[in-house]
Amino acid sequence: MGEPICLFGEGPFERRERLKQLVASRGPVISQEEYSSSEEENNADEEFYTVGPKELYDARKFLVDYSLSRARDRLSHAREKTKMSTTQLKTERYKLYSKLEVIHIVSIYETTESFASQVGGDRAISCCKFAPRNSSILATSSWDGTCSIWTNPECKLKITLRGHKDRVGTLDFHPLSFDSLSENAANLVSGSSDGIVNLWSLNRNEPLAELKGHTLRVATTCFHPSGRYIGSSSFDTSWRFWDVETQQELLLQEGHSKEVFALGFHPDGSLCGTGGFDSVGRIWDIRVGKSISTLKGHVKDILCINFSPNGYHVITGSDDNTIKVWDLRQHKNIYTIPAHTSLISCVK
Length: 348
Fold this sequence. Notes:
Helices cover 24% and strands 34% of the residues. The chain is of the alpha+beta class. A hairpin with a 4-residue loop joins strand 19 and strand 20 (332-337).
C-alpha cells in the first residue's frame, strides 16, 4: 500500500486504526476467493487454441471431403440393409455363422499342429500383421530393432528392414500395399523405443524417411484409411499426425495425463481413437482437432482400441482383463466382456 508498517511510538491499536483509514480511503477490497472466481469466469469465456500450419488446414479440408463421401456410402449400405426382410437377414447371418462354426471346428481339431513356424528375430517378436490386400505377405517387428517381411505360408524371408536403434514395438501396412501402390513408395510404417517413426519401401532395407518429434517410446503407428497420413502414439503423453508425402508433423495432440498407448482411425477417416495409461479413452475429430467423446470405465491401462465398420461402435482392451464396447451415439459403455484372465493387447 506504500505506507510504513509501523510508525515510531505506534502501538497495535493505533496501527490497526491507521490500516482501517487507509483501506477506507482506497475503496473496497476484493477477497482472494472473489478474485479467483472472477479469473475463472474470464478464462471460461476465452477460447484457447494453437495456430497450426497451412498444411494442417489443407489436410483438414481433404479429410472433410474424404470422410463425408465414405460416410455417405456407409449409410447408404446400412439403409439397404434396413429394407431387407427378416428372412433375408436371417439367411445372411446363418451363412456367416456357418462359416464361423466351420473355422471354429477346424481350429479345435488342428490345435495340435502348427501350420507354419519361423524364427523372426534375435529377440521377442512384438508385432505381426498381414498385408491388407494380400494375405500371402506378412510383416513382423522385433525387439532386436528390425522389421521383416515374409511370404505366407512358406515363411520365407523377403527382406529385413534395418534402421531403428532400439526395440521396434509397432508396425502397419499402407491400405494399398501389395495392391496398387508402388514398391518404391512408403508401404510400411514402424515405431520404436528410440522415439522415431520410420517409413519403409518394399525394395530397400533402409528407411525412406525418419519422422522425428516424439521424445519417448512410440507405442503405436497407424496409417490413415486414405493412406496419405500416419498417426503415432507415444509415452510422451501425446499423439501426432504426420503427412506421408512431405514427412511433416501436422498435429501434436495432447489430452491424456499419462502415456498414450493405443491409437486407431475411424473407417470413414474422420475420427481418431486413443487410449492411455490414465485408463481413459478419447475420440478425436481430426477434421477440427477436438475431443468429442471420453471413454471412462476401465480401471487400468488401455492397450488397444478399434472402430467397428458400422461407424458408431468402438472397442477397447485393457490391462484390467476386460474388453469394453462403446456406443458413440450414446457416449457410453454398452457391453463389457470379462472373458480373459490376463491383459488384452489387441482387438479387431
